[in-house]
């Protein structure tokens, strides 16, 4: 059992032992949430909620070969989705030029400028999990393994879903533009 495994076992019997895990993962989870919220206070609140839920449900966590952080990111994704359902707000899209260029390259579109506005429109209409898939791959530069762990998919399924999604997006974007 590694260091993290020992910390998890200790935290299951003593909630105070959860603090090192909190300190280790808080910043990454906060950034993950903030990029989708664009509101510091809401992001802080949701990040705190993620760790409260994790602590409350820690006894249900099983090490199945996936990093503990993947479980936390999954909780974060669920908390954000619940927040958007409860508040009827659009998600914040944090689109960096490099990520947009990479999406357009994956769609085999070398002239992406005319499509940027439509790309943003299409992304805003995606289901939250599909939006997260695009964001994690192209804007956060996560590996397919990480994405699969967070979304509770196989690595191959994450790849297939992404490329099917890109194909659908390309059809919509190029048809209209």
Characterise this structure:
It is a single chain. It is built from 9 helices and no strands. By secondary structure, it is mainly α. It folds into 2 domains: 85 residues, Rna Polymerase Sigma Factor, Chain: A (Orthogonal Bundle); 80 residues, Arc Repressor Mutant, subunit A (Orthogonal Bundle). The model has no long low-confidence stretch (mean pLDDT 84).
List the helices and strands and how they pair.
Blueprint: H1 3-13, H2 19-37, H3 40-56, H4 68-87, H5 97-106, H6 116-125, H7 128-139, H8 144-151, H9 155-176
Q: What's the total helix number?
A: 9
Question: What are the segments in which pLDDT stays under 50 over at least 5 consecutive residues?
Answer: none
- CATH homologous superfamily grouping of the largest domain: RNA polymerase sigma factor, region 2, helix turn helix motif
Helix-strand string: HHHHHHHHH
What is the gyration radius calculated from CA atoms? Answer: 18 Å
> Helix/strand/pairing class, anyone?
mainly alpha
Distance between the termini: 54 Å
CATH topology assignment of the largest domain: Rna Polymerase Sigma Factor, Chain: A
Shape: elongated
Give the strand content: under 5%
| The CATH C-level class name of the largest domain | Mainly Alpha
The major sheet is characterized as:
none
Number of strands: 0
Relative helix content: over 70%
CATH architecture of the largest domain: Orthogonal Bundle
Our count of domains comes out at 2
User: What's the pLDDT, averaged over the residues?
Assistant: 84
